[in-house]
Amino acid sequence: MVTPDPAARRALPSVDRLLSSNAVAPLIAKFGRALTTDTIRARLQTQREKLTQNANGFEFDEARFVAACDADLAQQTQPSLRPVFNLSGTVLHTNLGRALMPQAVADAVMSAMTRPVNLEFDLGGGARGERDTHVEKWITKLAGGDGAVVVNNNAAAVYLALNTVGSQRGKSEVIVSRGELIEIGGAFRIPDIMKRAGVKLIEVGTTNRTHLKDFAEAITPRTAAIMKVHTSNYAVQGFTATAPEPELAALAHEHHIPFIVDLGSGMLVNLEDYGLPHEPTPKEALAHGADLVTFSGDKLLGGPQAGLLVGKKELIACIRKNPMKRALRVDKMTLAALDALLRLYTNPDKLREEVTTIRLLTRAREDIRAQAERVLPQVQAALTGKAEARVVDCASQIGSGSLPVDSLPSAGIAILPVGKAKGSFADKLSLAFRALPVPVIGHIRDGAFILDLRCLDREAEFVAQLDRLKI
Fold first, then answer.
1. Is residue 60 domain-shared with residue 187, that is, in the same domain?
2. Do β-strands 307-311 and 147-151 pair in parallel, antiparallel, or remain unpaired?
3. Left if phi > 0, otherwise alpha if psi is -120 to 50, otherwise beta: which for 198?
4. Which of 268, 348, 422, 469 has fewest C-beta within 10 Å?
């Protein structure tokens, strides 16, 4: 080990001296004294360790030191939750926040955040009110049913529904087809949710075929409900059979037990009207005889994270009385967002214009390809001869467990190395694009880094930062 020159060590200023200097004053004003002090102390310690290795000719450069502290502080205080460009090819990307809010929804949330609102206050009667009433009328108008409840996500909606029906004395069994015991993101499984909800799962049928008689034979005096789960994130194809919803509803009602349908994603309009594959709606399930339907607010619906329960008045009333309802309820921002979103759905003719998710899902390949041709020259210029880019056709995914076997014709930019690149060049490109001021998330396919432009809204902002790409 090299012994540092004592004179070099003495050249390092004290923390107090730096804190009292004019050069550091702007850092204190911007980042606060405590954080600035910790950063200076850490930087000085790093410098001392370097002097232990080599102290020859050392001179302390205050301006350079302060600039380094400024960069450290900026990095430390950068928000953890940051905007990104979703060019992954998945529209409703769970890891990237799923649905984007329409401007009308964002405005409603901002108002609820910055002003007092009548969250649980009846303006007419002047007494305490029920928070779900702000959206209940719109949910029942658009989805059907006699009443509605909102909780923080669809897993919570399923949990609350099962916990409520399973709380009856002597009735704790819920019958589900073996082919519908789904697992959603993060390894949350329907059997696990049922167990936590306090009900006993009764599996019937097989993975690929379940018949009405399987349900009928499983009913006992302990049966609390029959449940059907929409397999929204996978598809069983080939030699298959499922019991129709109207027949399951009739069987349940014959035995005086509720029929529950979990739609998972869920949608309030017929997507076929917008050129997209059909997705079951709550209105259809209720028309088939369901007593309770659960679905999400932040997937195909295009709103905030929420779980919606809609159905028979008596069952909704029981759910509201469940003590777990309070633990799972949503806040004023979510209700404001849902209220604004649902009002947009009252005019289906304008959904393509006003609901961001619908607009992104229905973008024509020709429009996306034209955008790709526009930005291609800037992408090529940023690659500095290390890679080549070209416009390609690709297929977008809807995502978040919605329509798993369907894809959307799209277009994007494929980037490939020039010559014989060493290592995983596509991985290096992916990292370089993620390191941009607004990270760009693409995907790798067949050794190429692909930017699917279906979800590229802020084109000018995307192009403007490309000159900072470092490969």
1. no
2. antiparallel
3. left
4. 422
The CATH code of the domain that includes 201 is 3.40.640.10
CA angle (466, 467, 471) in 5-degree steps:
85
- According to the model, what pLDDT value does residue 76 have? 94
Amino acid 36: pLDDT? 97
Which residues are CB-contacts of 59 (< 8 A; sequence separation ≥ 6)?
11
- The closest alpha carbon to 361, from 141, 97, 98, belongs to 98
Q: Please provide the DSSP assignment of 186-241 as one string.
A: GGEEHHHHHHHTT-EEEEES-SSB--HHHHHHH--TTEEEEEEE--TT----SS-B
Number of domains in the chain: 3
Query: Is 233 part of a structural domain of the chain?
Result: yes
pTM score: 0.88
* pLDDT beyond 70 at 5: no
Residues 327-373: tens digit of each pLDDT: 999 999 999 999 999 999 999 999 999 999 999 999 999 999 999 99
CA dihedral angle for residue 279, residue 96, residue 102, residue 405, rounded to 10 degrees: -20
Mean pLDDT of 254-273: 94
With a CB cutoff of 8 Å and minimum separation 6, the contacts of 416 are 387, 388, 389, 425, 447, 448, 449
pLDDT of residue 1: 46
Question: Does the residue 281 lie in any domain?
Answer: yes
Provide the domain limits for residue 157.
Answer: 103-354
First CA to last CA distance, the chain: 37
Listed in order, strand segments (DSSP E) in 253-349 are 259-262, 292-296, 307-311
- pLDDT value at position 2? 47
Same domain as 180, residue 61: no
Question: In this structure, are 185 and 315 located in the same domain?
Answer: yes
Question: Which residue shows structure tokens 């004395």?
Answer: 169
What gap in Å lies between CA 371 and CA 391, rounded to an integer?
10
Is position 54 within any domain? yes
SS3 151: strand
240 shares a domain with 223: yes
Q: Do 178 and 48 fall within a single domain?
A: no
Q: By mean pLDDT, which of 180-189, 209-218, 335-344, 385-394 is the weakest?
A: 180-189
DSSP category for residue 4: P
Q: What is the pLDDT of residue 405?
A: 62
Percent share of the chain, pLDDT over 70 = 93
CATH number at residue 388: 3.90.1150.110
| 207 and 321 within one domain | yes
